[in-house]
Amino acid sequence: MNACSARNIGVLRALSSRLRFMTWAFAVSIALAVTPASHAQSNSTGSISGEVTGGSKVSVEEMASGFKRTVTASPDGSYRIGALPPGTYRVSYTDSAGVAQTTSTDVAIGLNSNVGSKTGVLELDRMVVGSNSINPIDFTNTEAVTTFSSKQIDLLPVARNTTAIALLAPGTTLGDSAFNDEGPIASFGGSSVAENAYFVNGFNLSNFRNGLNPASVPFEFYENFEIKTGGYSAEFGRSTGGVIIATTKRGTNEYHAGASVIWTPNKLKADAPSSYFKNLTGDVVPRIYNGADYLEEREANVWVSGPLLKNKVFFYGLYELRDSEKDDATVNGTQLLSRRSKDPFWGVKVDVVPFQDHHFEYTGFTDKNRRSDVLIPFDWKTGVSNPTQPAINYLDRGGYTHIGSYTGVFFEKLQLHAMYGQSTQNRTDSGTQDTLPFIYDGRSGSLVYVQGNPNLLTSKAKDKRKVTRFDAEYSFNLLGTHRLRAGFDRENNLSVDESVYSGGLYYRYYAIPASGKINGVAVPPGTTAAVRSRIYQNGGSFAVKSDAWYVEDNWSLWKDRMVMRLGLRNESFKNLNTAGDAFIEIKNQYAPRLGATFDLFGDKKTKIFANFGRYHLPVASNTNVRLAGAELFTEVYNVLTSVSSDLKTPVIGAQIGPKNVFSDGTIKDRRQIVDLDIKPMYQDEWILGAQHQFTKKVSAGFRFIARELDSTAMDDVIVDHALNAWAAAHGFTGFDATGEHAYVLSNPGRPIHMFWDFNGNGTLDSNEEATLTPEMLQYPKAQRKYYSMELFAEKIWDNKWSAQFSYTWAHSYGNYEGWVLSDTGQDDAGITTLFDSPLITTNTFGNLPNDRRHQFKAFGSYALTPEFRLGLNLLLSSGRAINKLGSIDDPVRGSTSNDYLLVPRGSAGTTPWLFQTDVSLSYKPKWAKGVSAYLTVYNILNRSSYVQTTETSTTAAGGVEPSYLAPWAWQQPRSVRVSLRYEF
For FRET with 890, which of 172, 415, 605, 950 sits at 20 to 30 Å CA-CA? Predict the structure, then answer.
């Protein structure tokens, strides 16, 4: 045996020994985590590392809480202390001459602060790190990340929600207004707004039903934010967009308390423009009327924090009162929607440090609230409303969230994390007209609400998430320094839903177009109007079970000059129908996460980095509810003979065309509704970039990002026509699936393997397995591509001013937006109408709704005096691509498709460029310690670019839609927020 072989065997034996030790350590972590109290994994902590005298002791102590950690530097002098809660730390060690060295540094979530002593004096390394920087140069990190502290946000004129924070980062855009009913949502890197992940203190608060509107936390409860726009590591999954991470405030060794009031007065708010068009009768009516808009928001909170036992037990508690009043004129100015919400919020954080290196946490809060939507008849010409017998809709949202976590450090090198949490979110819609059938009257060319629950559907619904997570990290030296990480997490999610149309029926009235046809069928001579009647009902309990594990090695070479991240994530999920049977199960989705950073000149000034990652997205529980439940959904068209004397209820005449049955009310065999060879949905991402520090306060960089989702998207498709083709080719004479509307969850553009009852005997026989080829199905493969170049520069705070600038060129295109469909505002995650028929896939390839070709962002703050600070936030963005949708008789659907693209996607123009300037002024008087006042003016120039326009060019009956291209949503008009805070 030669020396080289002997050395290799020795290395392998050492590695094997360490792996056995890691296995043991991970088992210990699971045993320790039986108690449901745990520190969140590393997505809510940071680290400190550097280079000192080899073998010396390095200690860190958080100044506010006394939390301490001590490690021994390796023989080459390198050290690292991880799992540190965000805060300001004192770093100390004794050098080789016996001189004590001390300095301080800030730790931010997900980032590393470098503190070393190369010059003989312990000092913060020259790179821009910690909470002072928005885009820090972290040589240990390959992610695309932007960080903020609550103190930084206080100095910026941004809205009080996580979306507003995310929109400060390069590569993010505001999603369409159709999805903003419960709050604005951001799109990351061209993905739909429903594909992001949201974490608070390590717990996933994302909406697993449709990806929209996560559980809400009041802004005053937050302390730190980390926005991951790409390249995130193996511990994160279930997202093909971005990741928003937040930590809450916590107690320290000093008692503090405070109170604040925040007021957005209606009298200081401007109105957005209104737009008008001529309807089919020649009358000028508003597409949207904003002259009666009203917005008044008031918040007041009190909080208290401090030690229950000094250096051991800390608490933070907050109670907030919220009162919101908002009025919007809707339905072409014929109705006034008045919204009210005034439910309080409370939150509490408890930290327990029983002894050094061990940390327990508990976080609990409620965002339970009821919003009342009152729909009142309104005359836009006179501004007079008639509040007699208004229709009221109640939206019950939110619930309770509890998070427990533990962090322990053993032998200085082994870190163990465990977490358990659960959250319940109410999603119930009810109202005062639930017993009345819902009616829309469209005979004038505009939809006019007549009666019924204004939400159309009434529902008793809730979502419940339970999360268990374990993480371990072990550091060792072997051909460099390694941080070997591994983890496992399990989510058990449950959606309960009982939904039905208001009154059990949905009527829509139509005028007969010049073609004399409705739904592609000629109407009887002399007919002047038609009515479409729809029935929908569904209910049950639907579970989604997801498991994931990951391993990752962060390998530092050449004294940390190069760091490689070698990660692998594996995800599995199982969706159950209302009977408790799995209708789709996908195992072992392997996702490599590979990255590298390099200190180009070895002086910690220039970082180059590259990253490749694969990111999977599970099936939303909305798909369980809609596809795997006992859903009954039918529609039929009839002659509208007249409307009853109450001017509401239809008098129905002869039937027009066949009855359409979209779902027959039975629970389908999974072999009928899911492709037996379905592939998991994933997106690949490549990042290449560099950052350079010009001075201790100024840095700049760039990132090139490519994202591709190609042929693995999941959506439901109609296969009636393909079933007929397969039956004819295999001797099943007399079979005709037309009109049955067989929907199958599949990968559009790929073959479908499924069963169908071709014999008509009520059972699925072995000879009834069909392979439907792409030629039979006629669907294109789903594609979404995103390419961008981000340029960014930063000047960090120097007690006088700070600024951050970014420019992003990006192109998002394809034929698949993602989980939701902005074209029509459809939030049916995973089962949109996009692939419901081969005919409506015509012209669908082009610029996607979240494509913003150019975006300039700049924000910062300036100290006018020691007491006054000015904040500025600027956005200049190119417009959104516009479509031209129309109606077409669709033989596959057996009805008229109203979402047919008449020209290639996104080729009907763009909305105007958007320019917005937000300004804030803060005042902290020296004569009144603890008092601070803030004045924020959003859109101070009151610019009024429209951000969405009517894209439907024909009516559902096939006539010309007169409101085509009429704007219906604008950038938010000027508004003012005033706040006053006192703390002691």
Answer: 950
